[in-house]
Design a protein that fits this description.
Helices cover about 55% and strands about 5% of the residues. The chain is built from 4 helices and 4 strands; from the N terminus they run ββββαααα. The strands form 2 sheets. It has a two-stranded antiparallel sheet with strand order 1-2. Strands 3-4 form a two-stranded antiparallel ribbon.
Length: about 160
């Protein structure tokens, strides 16, 4: 059998709905099996549809959790404790991302990843302001690494 869209390609795969022969290049995997591009739903899954209301809810959660976690970060680590700061960063990133995820009904995707990353950066700024130091100090290597690690954890928690 030959693919309906690519006549030079041999295939054993057919659309689960209309039985049209399809090749691996044009197959669309859905939650109910392989479909041809015509039969496949063109909508995103609801989990990845982030409208303005969900984006605002996520931003509010990132703001609140960023300030709260930044305050806790200040209380736990008044000064940088080296490697222990990196463990705190993992928890920080996960906490901010989890609050964004919870506030948006477990949605995920790039807009919410950016929102959570901003929340992690806000936590760092909050910690620095509570410590009474510069917003972005020049000699805080572990702080920078902790923020980057926290952002990576937050982004991965909300990835597609």
């Amino acid at each position: 059998m030959r693919c309906a869209r690519h006549p030079n390609t041999e295939t054993e795969l057919a659309c689960g709905r209309c039985e049209t022969p399809i090749c691996p290049r044009c197959v669309v995997m859905t939650d109910v099996g392989a479909r041809c591009p015509t039969c496949a739903p063109s909508r995103k899954l609801p989990q990845f549809e982030v409208g303005p209301v969900y984006l605002l809810r996520g931003a509010a959660a990132a703001l609140v959790s960023g300030v709260a976690v930044g305050g806790l970060w200040r209380l736990i680590l008044a000064e940088s404790l080296g490697f222990f700061s990196l463990i705190v960063a993992i928890v920080l990133g996960y906490a901010v991302a989890e609050s964004v995820s919870w506030a948006t009904g477990r949605k995920s995707g790039p807009p919410l990843q950016v929102t959570a990353a901003a929340g992690v950066a806000l936590a760092y700024v909050t910690r620095n302001l509570l410590l009474g130091i510069s917003v972005v100090p020049t000699n805080d290597l572990y702080g920078y690494v902790a923020v980057i690690l926290g952002i990576v954890v937050a982004v991965n928690r909300l990835r597609i």
